[in-house]
């Protein structure tokens, strides 16, 4: 097995607020690693043989890499806006490819069937036309002008609304969702999915949010987002093949799958193949 280009990416391996001197053991691409806080307050991440890995703290998480990333961790400028609540949702372990987890987050069409009466409902199942592009300068996948009717777009929402969405893929195992903010029209709520590849078919998913919501208790915000993702987990763990197919002929896309198609094309372009299936079996 070769990790290839994926080795030089940044990956989340824990919540900054949870790391202490006692340390935590975890996996990254099949390799055991340990993270802990030094006496001076520095976060240290090491492999089992004592090799220190690069570390960056961002978006509430500790990020590291088995290689040497040639670019900084992607920014989320909206999270620095005054008045936003930064929500650490925690972690959910999922028996699926890390790339499958990201692709599922990008899928709009499943809302009425998996998140019934919350993020979608019948008969509002049609995905309207939207735009997708690979932005060459940023080297990111973006989907814009996405609209979908949702009975409860957020924990703070009082009723059904047509929600505006934008999706951004700034890294192979990360996605950022911008959606209509019920509490503050004209602004975007930010919901992210940071995925830690434990192996090619097992991952830890770290959702994180930057919201305008002064009313909902933090515990309710966390539970709402955990409920949404746990509904996705059963779907993800039953997908066949487990790894994300990158050959266009292996799965037949529909108009609603434009973001997925662009994401797979972008992964293939950069040789991001950890957790991918390249040929039909």
Task: Describe the overall structure.
The chain is an alpha+beta fold and 281 residues long. The protein folds into two domains: 4-64, N-terminal domain of TfIIb; 78-244, Naphthalene 1,2-dioxygenase Alpha Subunit, Chain A, domain 1 (Alpha-Beta Complex). The protein contains four helices and 16 strands. Helix 4 links the parallel strand 15 and strand 16. Residues 112-117 and 152-157 have low confidence and may be disordered.
Salient structural properties:
8-stranded antiparallel β-sheet, 16 strands, N-terminal domain of TfIIb, 16% helix, 4 helices, 281 residues, alpha+beta, 2 domains, Naphthalene 1,2-dioxygenase Alpha Subunit, Chain A, domain 1
Q: What is the fold's blueprint, element by element?
A:
Elements: E1 11-15, E2 24-28, E3 31-37, E4 43-47, E5 55-58, E6 61-64, E7 85-88, E8 92-94, H1 98-106, H2 111-114, E9 131-135, E10 140-150, E11 161-171, E12 174-180, E13 188-199, E14 202-211, H3 218-236, E15 244-245, H4 258-269, E16 276-277
Parallel strand pairs: 15-16
Antiparallel strand pairs: 1-6, 2-3, 3-4, 5-6, 7-14, 8-14, 9-10, 10-11, 11-12, 12-13, 13-14
């Amino acid at each position: 097995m070769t990790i290839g280009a994926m080795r030089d990416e940044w990956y989340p391996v824990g919540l900054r607020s949870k790391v202490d001197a006692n340390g935590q053991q975890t996996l990254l691409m099949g390799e055991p690693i340990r993270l802990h806080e030094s006496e001076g307050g520095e976060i240290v991440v090491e492999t089992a043989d004592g090799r220190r890995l690069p570390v960056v703290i961002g978006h509430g998480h500790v990020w590291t890499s088995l290689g040497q990333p040639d670019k900084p961790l992607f920014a989320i400028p909206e999270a620095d806006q005054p008045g936003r609540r930064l929500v650490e949702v925690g972690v959910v372990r999922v028996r699926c490819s890390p790339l499958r987890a990201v692709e599922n987050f990008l899928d709009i069409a499943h809302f009425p069937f998996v998140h019934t009466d919350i993020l979608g409902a019948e008969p509002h199942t049609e995905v309207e036309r939207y735009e997708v592009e690979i932005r060459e300068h940023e080297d990111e996948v973006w989907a814009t002008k996405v609209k979908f009717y949702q009975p409860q777009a957020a924990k703070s929402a009082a009723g059904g609304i047509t929600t505006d969405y934008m999706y951004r893929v700034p890294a192979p195992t990360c996605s950022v969702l911008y959606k209509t903010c019920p509490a503050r029209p004209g602004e975007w709520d930010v919901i992210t999915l940071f995925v830690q590849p434990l192996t090619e078919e097992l991952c830890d998913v770290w959702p994180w949010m930057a919201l305008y919501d002064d009313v909902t208790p933090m515990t309710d915000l966390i539970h709402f987002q955990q409920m949404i993702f746990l509904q996705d987990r059963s779907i993800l763990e039953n997908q066949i093949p487990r790894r994300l197919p990158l050959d266009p002929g292996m799965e037949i896309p529909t108009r609603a799958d434009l973001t997925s198609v662009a994401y797979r094309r972008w992964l293939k372009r950069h040789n991001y193949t950890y957790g991918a299936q390249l040929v039909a079996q």
